[in-house]
Structure formats: C-alpha cells, structure tokens
Amino acid sequence: MKDLAQIDGAIEWLGVKYKTILGSEQTGGTMSIVDSCSPAGSGPPRHVHQNEDETFVILTGTCRFWLEGEEFSAGAGESVFIPRGKEHTFKVTDDEPCRHLVILSPGGFEGFFSDMAAGQCRIPEDMPAIEESAKRHNMAFTGPPLD
Length: 147
Hints:
By secondary structure, the protein is mainly β. The radius of gyration is 14 Å and the shape is globular.
C-alpha cells in the first residue's frame, strides 16, 4: 500500500494526511470518499455532522471510537457507521498511524479538510476560522477529544 504522502493531491493538517479519492462533484453530491492517515494518539474533538452519514473503513491500525456516550474499538478490516446528527469522535490507539477511508453521504464535507490544510489552522489559536469552516460544512464541535 502506497504511503499517502506519496500520492498526488494528498493534503496535510495537524499531522493528518487526506486525499479525496471520490469527490462530491464526481457523484452529483451524493457521496465522497477521503483516504486519511492519522498519526498515533491523534483524533478530533467531539463533533456532530448535521447533514452527513459518516462511515470509517479501517485499513491499518486501530481507533477507539466514542459515539453518543458508548466507546468501542475498530481495527484493520472493520468498519464503523456514524449516522448524521450523532455526537462522536475517535482516537488512534496504536503506536502506528491509522489509515482509513472516510465515506460521507451526501458528499461535500471533504471541503472542510481542504480549508484546514489550505489555512494550516492551529488549535486553539485559529478556532474562529476552524469553527466558521465547520459551520459552512454543517458540523459543530461539542466537546473535547478522547483522552
């Protein structure tokens, strides 16, 4: 499997690499797929996607997920479905990065990753810009990352 950094068009934000492999413009907005590689110990703050169902297909590594108060792990070869409107987060629990596909339905949220990589937004210094992009992409932050 090629390292994501070696793939044309991969972008990076806060150590996470993203490559949109199927954009919403290719599907009439019905879905998008992002190839993502998150470093050991990383993960986003708790959040909610108002409009998108989100499916994680774990290719390498292991993540601990938190979904509406329930915690569980998923590793290589497993998938996790997060319905729209459900508060969630995840954290890479291995000592190695976790590579996973993020399938969004409908598509469009991949634009948030592009915004963040383009602006190289920092946390907490650039939270107003991060929250503005999140709002435009129908996402709201609701709590801290997993410990």
